[in-house]
Amino acid sequence: MVGVYVSNSSRKEPHYQEMEEAGEIRERPTEVVVHKVEAPPLRTSLSKMKLRLKETFFPDDPFRCFEGQPLKTKWALAAKYLFPILGWAPNYSLSLFKSDFISGLTIASLAIPQGISYAKLANLPPIIGLYSSFVPPLVYAVLGSSRDLAVGPVSIASLIMGSMLRQAVNPSADPLLFLQLAFTSTFFAGLFQASLGIFRLGFIIDFLSKATLVGFMAGAAIIVSLQQLKSLLGIVHFTNQMGLVPVMSSIFHRTNEWSWQTVLMGICFLVFLLLARHISLKRPKLFWVTAGAPLACVILSTLLVFLFKAQNHGISIIGKLKCGLNHPSWDKLLFDATYLGVVMKTGLVTGIISLTEGVAVGRTFASMKDYQVDGNKEMMAIGLMNIVGSCTSCYVTTGAFSRSAVNHNAGCKTAMSNIVMAITVMVTLLFLMPLFVYTPNVVLSAIIIAAVAGLIDIPAAYHIWKMDKIDFVVCLCAFLGVIFISVQDGLAIAVGISICRILLQTTRPKIVVLGNIRGTEIYRDLQQYKEARRIRGFLILAVEAPINFANTIYLKERVRRCIEEENVVEHEQAALRFVILDLSAVFTIDTSGIASLIELKKSMEKRDLELLFINPNGEVMEKLQRANNVHNFLGVDSLYLTIGEAVLSLSSLAKVSP
Amino acid sequence: MVGVYVSNSSRKEPHYQEMEEAGEIRERPTEVVVHKVEAPPLRTSLSKMKLRLKETFFPDDPFRCFEGQPLKTKWALAAKYLFPILGWAPNYSLSLFKSDFISGLTIASLAIPQGISYAKLANLPPIIGLYSSFVPPLVYAVLGSSRDLAVGPVSIASLIMGSMLRQAVNPSADPLLFLQLAFTSTFFAGLFQASLGIFRLGFIIDFLSKATLVGFMAGAAIIVSLQQLKSLLGIVHFTNQMGLVPVMSSIFHRTNEWSWQTVLMGICFLVFLLLARHISLKRPKLFWVTAGAPLACVILSTLLVFLFKAQNHGISIIGKLKCGLNHPSWDKLLFDATYLGVVMKTGLVTGIISLTEGVAVGRTFASMKDYQVDGNKEMMAIGLMNIVGSCTSCYVTTGAFSRSAVNHNAGCKTAMSNIVMAITVMVTLLFLMPLFVYTPNVVLSAIIIAAVAGLIDIPAAYHIWKMDKIDFVVCLCAFLGVIFISVQDGLAIAVGISICRILLQTTRPKIVVLGNIRGTEIYRDLQQYKEARRIRGFLILAVEAPINFANTIYLKERVRRCIEEENVVEHEQAALRFVILDLSAVFTIDTSGIASLIELKKSMEKRDLELLFINPNGEVMEKLQRANNVHNFLGVDSLYLTIGEAVLSLSSLAKVSP
């Protein structure tokens, strides 16, 4: 029950006079109505802990639909949860297949050249890129819950894997060992991804904010493009480092190695690809232009090289590729102590990065089509897909943004489009490999540059700048860190800044001085609302953050400063009688926080001020009561449900007993 | 101006009918009054940034008193700020000196035996402990702003320095190098402390919460006591490790080395010291009992050894100590690359720990006597004191809690008591050193154990357990980490958990469903207030945390879940029309947060629900408006100042147009 007690005074505050003049009003403000602050219903610590754990790890409540179902249905639901294919396959129809077939072929035409290119970016044999576009999409089709995700290798994860492993092993000196490390890293990436999902720790990837990703992606795109300058200019002796400075100096120290034939060919195809991209961006209906362009480039350039025997004129070609499907590679996984550290670290970083991309892509298209994607479930699917991949000669894969967008635009309906793509890649692997012998490396570089150009999102960076300057600083740090230090460090710096920002927000919570909006019982920030007026004798402060160890000292100092400033405003020391602390926004408080409130209350008393608390929430109220049982610091009038009631009640009391 | 617009409906919600029945009421609720949400007055990004920087680094506004003063006064104020001694010395009187003289002598009698003991704890020659009780107090008396702080070496910093440096150098094999490293660590500790103060980063020590410190202190006290078992049992071959397990095994493997004379003497003095401590705790007026007890023990035990020639019966003694004051030691500072790492790390850890103790002690007594201590100024003072100390044969010092409490109880008035103490130590150093030759080591160990026993605060731990279970887990982790792993790691683990907790709070903000309290316009948590009632057709949610990248996904999922649960409650899908998001407690929002609100708004529209925002604060309002200029997602009715107005206005609108 709301306890209502009525003060024994009938005098009112000036701003209620107008109400009074207007006629008789029931109870308020003729007598002051005061509602009691209630503590929440008692619960044991255990049940509270359980609730909190549930909210932390199962906020989406994935098992809700299981409740109250018969056992058989539960099993069926569980199977559907683990294998989403069971949800759509039974009702699959020919008309759905038509759409999926077209989109599957479209993404295959994009996947084949990109697969070859990205594998080269990771310093792996080109065929690994094709292998990685065959097995993982099949696994994902069975386990994944997104309908639009197109699975395969992606540029940034490839780049990171290549650069991190190159620090341990030289890929040209010992290609087999390098390949083994790549498979093992993929295994760890998958293991890590799957465990995040299983232990419901998916929220960890939420710490990569939009701002971080915009900066990071742009930086990585530039690093990737810089690496392509090797093939694009036909340079033979290229630096092993990734940074902007070493690459640029390497390029300009090797001008003698530049091959004009290669440059000419590269620029032509690059312009063609960028134009195709531009057209598709302007008209989403022409999605097939972007989708088909890379394959067209590959075919055209291969023909050109073949006809003009250009390989003899300074244009380097892929060379012979073996026909046949993926070999098993579980025997190649290398858990040797020498390389375990680097392999695990590479797995962790590529795992996180590819997971972030995959989950973000899945969520984006799910919200477009208004269906749900369970983040943790997706992580299990992607993780398992990589574990299986690492045993079948694939390196790290995920849902790629550009390819999924094409998939979506091409009208895919279910994960069947991934199966179609995989079969197309299979056919290529089995029969069409000899066709790639004369494909020039320069065209692969052009494909990579055109693909990563989309990662530089200047409008997004501008939008961030407009919205939030600190977010922009985070974005810029990620960008500069990636370009000038290294891909991993840039990411770490940006995440570090983001976390420091959250911590800083906690350390310096906003404390605003409230005033009354004339004619109402509404109290709002004096700075925001010009009509808000101070009430003589009261200092009303709203604390807008959890009170904890990190900000108690600040809180006390800030309240003291507010009181001093208030005294300057009032020009009469004696006028201030009540300090009101609005705790509505304090959603949690710890031991230090409670101790600081007690201390504040006592130090106010030394200055003849009364400290009041307004609207503490359940948790805060509980702790205040518990502390009060020991320290007995709460008076009868220390707690109010609203500021209005507190002001009314206290000012009438104050006038009765001057 | 508050924009008031009145809806064209005169129909009211049920819970306003009673008001109506009571008579005519001006404007409300005959017509619905709606106040406009205002944006704060425009300010440039630069001025906002300036304000934020000021709030972060100068929350206490230390330069306020400088404003509007003539230049001469400003200089005088600046001098007083840098040298607080100028504030009290000119008005110093004989009566003040009497109090300070007594308290100075009292803490000297405590400082001398403790100085010798703590130096041994740090594996340093005992005389260094006395040196450290001479110069630093003098420096602090000039620079420090606390009137109660008693400066000197402290147990935990000594322990940490000893154990961290011992990992690099064996103090018995190479005592000179060890001493050099100790001075250099002290130098770095001072440098680090002073820079924290100068760069106003003092809030970093706030991250050591009360819970962390309770656990850490208790663990450290046990580790310190365990180390004393060597002297207390008279063991010669003792382990070099600090952990509970190796020490206990070392003790029980060396039972043959136990010396009964030493054990007897040790236990007798320990019981005496603990009794003395107990008496002072019960009666603060008898502070001199604790204060004098250690010196009494030293004198008594020295006499006993001297009379019975006990050094020949298995009782180890300090031995000869050199007379004379501190030697300069700046030539002993060692910036060699081999040891730079360990020395800087030791400086950092001991610096942070001793700073935390010093600042906390200063603040505690300042709030008792109701004067102000500027945390950052104190850090500069303590830092400078240690830098000077490192050049005059002192190791790391700070304000010790136990000694400051004695100082306070003995009635000190100003920092003069530190000068008196320093002079007493000086006299001891010059003339009384030969008296310590026969002091047995066992009594020093007893003094240390009695001193650190006060650090084990079981009532505080129990209080934490009662107040907050997670705080207790932090406390326990710090305790167990210190005991079983190492002092530094225990601290790092506890700080890590505290920070993770803050991050987790941000990731999983509280979102509560509000209901109306009958007969009022007050909306409160349905779970906390049993009288609060849902309003049909409305789902009212309060978000109680800043919305940022770390919680946008959760926010969206949580709102979606609330809607589903609401639909179950209402048993009729069509009933829910409005989702109200109370943003009062959202004190800041970033780019991701704004994007998620837009997305939420759009996805609600797809479900024929209208999303409203209540009372965004200045910053949020500004960003909403800026985003609205681009995305145009805010309708006419999307923002309200209070929930009550939103509900009234919308329900009347809804009834007009069904």
From TrEMBL, chains A, B:
Q: Which PROSITE patterns match?
A: SLC26A, STAS
Q: Where is this region: Disordered?
A: 1-22
Q: Which residues form the STAS domain?
A: 528-650
Top-level taxon of the source organism: Eukaryota
**Pfam families, per database record:** STAS, Sulfate_transp
Give the transmembrane region(s): 124-143, 177-201, 207-226, 233-252, 258-275, 287-308, 379-398, 419-437, 443-465, 472-499
Q: Could you tell me which PANTHER family the record lists for this protein?
A: SULFATE TRANSPORTER (PTHR11814)
Designated name of the protein: Probable sulfate transporter 3.3
Q: Which species does this protein come from?
A: Ananas comosus (Pineapple)
Gene for this chain:
LOC109706509
